[in-house]
Write a structure and sequence with these properties.
Elements lengths: L9 E12 L2 E7 L14 E6 L6 H10 L4 E11 L4 E7 L6 H8 L5 E5 L13 E6 L4 H10 L6 E7 L14 E7 L9 H8 L7 E8 H14 L7 E7 L5 H11 L1
Parallel strand pairs: 7-8, 7-10, 8-9, 10-11
Antiparallel strand pairs: 1-2, 1-6, 2-5, 3-4, 3-6, 4-5
Length: 260
């Protein structure tokens, strides 16, 4: 089977920046090349490439294509408005000041970064009788985008863990989704609150689809739970570790490749 070719990288320019909550910033980007990106890509992964302070856009594209590899991070397309060529990416603001977090905190109109993507969306079809969604702050964009794409008569439960009550967001979820917001103030310490809620839930009969993402230690335990203690088919489960406590993204991605 032939591999799908990688999308050609382009430059995204910052159009607007605003705070969603104390620990999350939304950056609105624009670029002529967004005309070629598919509608409905909200929730899909993309790669962003952080320029250094002295780079211009042409230099960054040259580096993406020919090396040495610039700083790259994986993010989620939160919103895409193709009619006005705008794409939103939500950034968690870290106290330790990683490169992407620093970019978002200091971003202003006219700033730029490199962009490749988006990939395919995580859930292509919605056919379940009941949905289970769970996220920490790193995965709010994929779960929020999924909630907003669900059929309006969908039933299910969402569990979202944030650092403070002020980080709770308004999400256009169907009325039949029971929204649960948990507070975990220290993301450097692993939380088992989401897992405890999922394990305690008596799943209804019928087809169940999941969209679950977050810290890899929690995800590993939940993946084992779904495999060993439920009858949900693998094809109906999306579950992914987006980060790991104590590792930067390059280290985490290397570890994931070793575990496959």
């Amino acid at each position: 089977m032939l591999k799908k070719p990688k999308p050609v990288p382009c430059i995204l320019t910052v159009k607007d920046v605003f705070s969603l909550s104390p620990h999350m910033v939304r950056v609105v980007f624009t670029a002529p090349e967004l005309e070629s990106r598919p509608l409905g890509c909200e929730g899909a992964n993309c790669k962003i490439f952080i320029p250094n302070k002295k780079q211009n856009p042409d230099d960054l594209i040259e580096q993406i294509l020919n090396g040495p590899r610039p700083t790259v991070r994986t993010y989620t397309v939160r919103n895409f408005r193709k009619d006005v060529l705008e794409l939103d990416i939500d950034f968690v603001i870290h106290s330790d000041g990683g490169p992407a977090s620093n970019f978002a905190m200091n971003a202003k109109p006219g700033d730029f970064l490199g962009f490749r993507g988006p990939s395919d969306v995580k859930i292509k079809d919605y056919y379940a009788d009941w949905y289970l969604l769970a996220a920490d702050m790193s995965a709010i964009p994929v779960v929020a985008a999924t909630l907003e794409k669900l059929p309006r008569n969908a039933m299910g439960m969402a569990i979202i863990e944030v650092q403070s009550e002020d980080d709770i967001q308004n999400i256009d979820a169907p009325m039949g989704i029971n929204m649960n917001w948990l507070i975990h103030s220290d993301p450097h310490k692993q939380s088992r609150a989401q897992e405890a809620m999922i394990r305690a839930k008596k799943f209804p009969d019928g087809i169940i689809q999941t969209c679950i993402a977050g810290e890899s230690g929690v995800i590993k335990s939940l993946r084992k739970f779904f495999k060993d203690e439920t009858q949900i088919p693998n094809d109906d489960i999306y579950i992914s570790g987006y980060w790991k406590i104590g590792l930067i993204e390059d280290e985490h991605q290397a570890q994931k490749r070793l575990e496959k």
